[in-house]
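Hey all, quick one. A colleague (J.T.) asked me to put the guanosine-5'-diphosphate job into the tracker so the inputs and the structure tokens live in one place instead of scattered across chat threads. No bug as far as I know, just bookkeeping. Sequence used:
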Amino acid sequence: MSDQEKPKNTKPSTKEGVKQPAKLNPNLRKLRKNRSRSLPAAPEFVEAIRKGDRVRLSQAITLVESTQEAHLAKAQQIIDACLPFSGSSIRLGITGTPGVGKSTFIEAFGKFLIEKQRKPAILAIDPSSQLTKGSILGDKTRMSSLAMEEHAFIRPSPAGKSLGGVARKTRETIILCEAAGYDSIIVETVGVGQSEVAVHSMVDFFLLLLLPGAGDELQGIKRGVVEMADLLAVNKADGSRLALAKQARQAYRNALHLFPMKKNRWQPKVVTCSAIEQSGIAEIWRIICKFEEQMKQTGFFEDQRSAQARYWFEESIQQQLKRLFEQHPAVKTRMKELEAAVVRGTTSPFRAAEELIKLFLEQ
Ligand code: GDP
């Protein structure tokens, strides 16, 4: 092959450049990674939370929501230290079917509270996310303008397998938010079932939002939920729906008269409001303040909080026992076999349970 026939070497020629020095610290990347993971000790957390540091507050809530033992242990230390600084807020539960206007209402209400020099924290309990892996309450994109407010704190629903677990996390988050200076805690839930009971067991006042004239007077909301409410507000009382909303208000007032008187002797109120036009919000706040004053005078406010603390104590015992039981090695091994035997019908559920508990207690 002559020189002309040879294919041209197209590879760019390179010159040896300046020799790069060895990395100053080859572990730098690892160190950086660890540093971002290492969080301060519990007392530092508490100090920062008490100063209103929202980043530390969020991180502490993430610890509460974690499933790792080490995180949970730290979370408990933080909660214990925050407890003396908690409890002085008003805790409000807000529920209603999807589309009733909860996030629009909370946004308007939250801003109203900020104008009143209060600091609202909005927490959510969303049972739908456990059932369907999707959520009805949605994520952080809701209430985006309230989220921009310096004096508001919004936290979406924690993930979790059981409603009990999710509710416990929310209850502990309330304590952290109160220690951080939030004085109006709003726990939002979707009005479809059990989660209202969980929310009711952690709030002082329960507000049910309703739609005007949705035909069925109770809009698929269980009677139990209506009975729990301290205030019913027919939302979307604006434009062409104003008259319908007023009719609905009257219908609910009539219906409530048939309910037995509550132990705290509070007669639930029914009002109309428009979250979009921001009307009726001041009236709702006035009712909440009146409720608080009346309950504090009669001692029911403290009684209810004590009853809630007892309820969560019992719930915690059950949850912790269940966790210990399920993690127990001997129980874990035998559980599957016994479950199969129960399904086959060769062992009774009671006998099988008895055997597992024996194993748990013996080893
Ligand atoms: P959520 O699912 O209960 O949180 O409901 P949203 O707050 O997302 O509201 C559902 C729809 O109702 C949205 O299109 C809102 O703009 C609308 N909406 C909420 N509040 C009002 C209100 O007071 N009046 C009217 N006309 N529409 C409203």
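Adding what we noticed when we looked at it: The radius of gyration is 28 Å. The first helix runs from residue 28 to 37.
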